[in-house]
Amino acid sequence: MSPDVEGAPRRQVATTALLIVAGVLVLFVPAGGEGRVLLPVSEGHGLSAVDAVGAALLAVGATWLEVLVVRRLPHLALPPRALFALGLLAGLGVGLLIASVFSGFFWWWAVGAAAIGVAVLVLVPLTARR
Q1: From which domain of life does this come (predicted)?
Q2: What span, in angstroms and rounded, lies between the C-alpha atoms of 90 and 79?
Q3: Structural domain range at position 94
Q4: Is 90 exceeded by the pLDDT of residue 88?
Q5: C-beta contacts of 45-52 below 8 A and 24+ residues apart
């Protein structure tokens, strides 16, 4: 393999991480600086133009990262039970994030984000390896 191809996973993971961080930073803009709500989701939740930009950056980065992880799964050498547990944890995290928008308990998003974070912290370094 050429040196350019060997460094590709690491560069791509770094690019996706930058997109994700940029999206999260845009989503952290205080509600007073976001402008009017374009699409109300539920009481207390709505999508503004700033939120749409942050969500788009986050979605592109996270989807690209997921594709990288799935394409490298055979090379990660994780046992089937570990892969199942990580997938279950990430799925539970996504479900809790989505449910937090529609439930009365606002802080479920933090539990969901922590669950996704654990799965990401395990899989991303393995994906970035050569």
Answers
A1: Bacteria
A2: 17
A3: 3-128
A4: yes
A5: 45/101, 50/26, 51/27
